[in-house]
Write a structure and sequence with these properties.
356 residues, alpha+beta, 3-stranded antiparallel β-sheet, 37% helix, rod-shaped, binds phenylalanine
């Protein structure tokens, strides 16, 4: 079979140059071999056959063939680069380049953890170190050392989750093991661990025999605070907690102290902060009162100091305890405490970027 005339070969190759831009990767490589392949490429063969052409044809066809080869090289390179590009889904590749990309999952700090960290940081700035204690605690640390009278209702088994660890310890004898109902036993552990001055914040989980409802959970967070030193007075308590409230909520926050009762503090108080949403004029979040209850506090009872080997004639102290989950709920407008336990990404992702 006679070879096709060189001019006819050139004419048949030219339209294929334009079609390169429509080829996917495998088709492009097949075409590359068919045109520029070293052994059987149509253009390669043509260039090789130039030697046998009459001199005039050789010059004319040779120039045109070389130019076409360069054009093909440029076009192959360009198409390859395009197919390798990040946004490309070539025709026939099965990709739809118009689909939105897959977002990478980015983790975030849980809102309660964030509040716990922020609160501890504020107290850290005032010289309070962080302390921790066991969640399974003996009754003595949880109740007796803290001056709870023997008939205090919190010691009733309805409120407290006792742990059966065998042996003959019984509820009420001080040795029974329970899941701590508050972080206050770590006050006792801290004072027994070393002499004053003491300044600690104690974050941790506590347990009560409550069922889950929008405002209760059988396990929840507390942050305890304790300062014991010579000459500590109620003024130090108020100044410290006012500073905390202004740092945590806003510089305009006001606080008020209402008399209260805890067995381990005397005098005792509840601290409210002016509602940071309405500024104190009354809104749904503060139930129209303008105030939000934040924590319990008081001067450490002399009997507690004594139980911990601290001389109440030399040292005084203050203590406070707050619920960071309730504080997080107030801050972020969360209506149901159970949302903080669910791990539901539809809820949590709404708070992932939320700052103070
Ligand atoms: N332990 C108390 C509670 O759980 C809070 C508290 C801590 C009150 C320290 C006064 C001082 O309610």
């Amino acid at each position: 079979m006679a070879e096709p005339a060189p001019q006819a070969v050139l004419d048949s190759l030219r339209p294929r140059l334009e079609r390169l831009a429509t080829l996917d990767s495998p088709a492009l490589e097949v075409e590359h071999i068919a045109i520029l392949g070293r052994k059987s490429g149509a253009l390669t063969a043509l260039l090789r056959s130039l030697a046998v052409l009459p001199p005039d044809d050789r010059k004319r066809i040779g120039a045109a063939a070389n130019e076409l080869r360069k054009s093909f090289e440029v076009a192959f390179d360009a198409r390859r680069a395009e197919l390798a590009g990040p946004r490309h889904g070539g025709a026939g590749s099965g990709l739809d380049p118009t689909l939105p990309g897959r977002r990478r999952w980015v983790g975030a700090i849980h809102p309660v953890t964030r509040v716990v960290e922020e609160i501890c940081e504020i107290f850290h700035g005032l010289g309070f170190n962080r302390a921790v204690g066991p969640e399974a605690e003996t009754e003595w640390y949880n109740f007796q050392a803290l001056n709870f009278p023997a008939d205090h209702p919190a010691m009733d088994m309805h409120d407290t989750l006792y742990v059966d660890v065998g042996g003959d310890a019984r509820p009420g004898d001080g040795k029974a093991v329970l899941l701590r109902t508050h972080t206050s036993p770590v006050q006792v552990r801290t004072m027994l661990a070393g002499p004053p001055p003491v300044r600690v914040v104690i974050p941790g989980l506590v347990y009560r025999k409550d069922t889950f409802d929008p405002s209760h959970a059988p396990v929840f967070w507390q942050i305890e605070g304790l300062a014991v030193d010579r000459g500590i007075s109620f003024v130090d308590l108020k100044g410290t907690l006012l500073h905390f409230a202004r740092q945590f909520f806003s510089a305009a926050t006001r606080v008020r102290f209402r008399p209260s009762y805890f067995p381990f503090t005397e005098p005792s108080a509840e601290m409210d902060v002016s509602c940071y949403l309405c500024g104190g004029s009354g809104c749904a979040a503060c139930k129209g009162t303008g105030w939000m209850e934040i924590l319990g506090c008081g001067m450490v009872h002399p009997d507690v100091l004594r139980n911990c080997g601290v001389d109440p004639d030399v040292f005084t102290g203050f203590a406070f305890g707050m619920g960071p989950q309730r504080i997080a709920m107030q801050r972020y407008g969360i209506p149901d405490i159970r949302l903080l336990f669910d791990g539901d990404m539809r809820f949590l992702s709404q708070l992932a970027g939320a700052g103070a």
